[in-house]
Design a protein that fits this description.
With about 160 residues, the chain is α/β, with parallel strands linked by helices. The chain contains 4 helices and 8 strands, in the order βαβαββαββββα.
């Protein structure tokens, strides 16, 4: 099974900003990274009216749209488990998973008190919290949300990742 890390937090806390800052830092250290993003709203997987979308409308369960730049796989299966999605990915050192709070993978919480929501560390297990403020009551390491290098240092150690493969 591929190693995954959940990036969890309330909407507006900065999960995507942290994730997109971490990816190039981890890649610069020789690690292969993939990501999975959970969306809470229904979204079109393809552009309506395009040939690939028409394949799905005709009943295809999965459609691959390929070009010289890469490919996109559109899977029209409902409620796919995170483990199934992780199994589909090519082997990498770490998959950063935004959302999917309920899955049993190590989690890093992004918490900004200014968002006005309670911390998640009180209701779920997290390995650390990245925040833009000091959190004196937090029982796990608190990392500087604005320091992607420092967060990467912590994750490499905590997850036992091997740099420079």
């Amino acid at each position: 099974m591929v190693q995954a890390l959940g990036i969890v937090g309330w909407s507006g806390s900065g999960k995507t900003t942290l994730l997109t800052a971490l990816i190039p830092v981890l890649r610069a250290r020789g690690l292969k990274i993939s990501s999975i993003k959970h969306a809470h709203h229904d979204l079109p997987l393809d552009k309506p009216g395009k040939d690939s979308a028409r394949h799905a409308e005709a009943g295809a369960e999965e459609v691959i749209l390929a070009s010289a730049r890469g490919y996109a796989l559109f899977s029209y299966q409902k409620d796919t488990a995170l483990s199934d999605m992780l199994a589909r990915l090519r082997p990498v050192d770490l998959v950063l998973v935004e959302g999917f709070k309920g899955y049993e993978i190590p989690k890093l919480e992004v918490h900004r008190p200014s968002v006005g929501k309670p911390p998640l560390w009180t209701s779920m297990e997290v390995i650390a919290v990245a925040s833009d403020e000091k959190l004196p009551d937090c029982p796990v390491p608190v990392l500087d949300l604005g320091d992607a290098q420092g967060v990467a240092d912590f994750l490499i150690g905590a997850l036992g990742l091997n740099e420079g493969r």
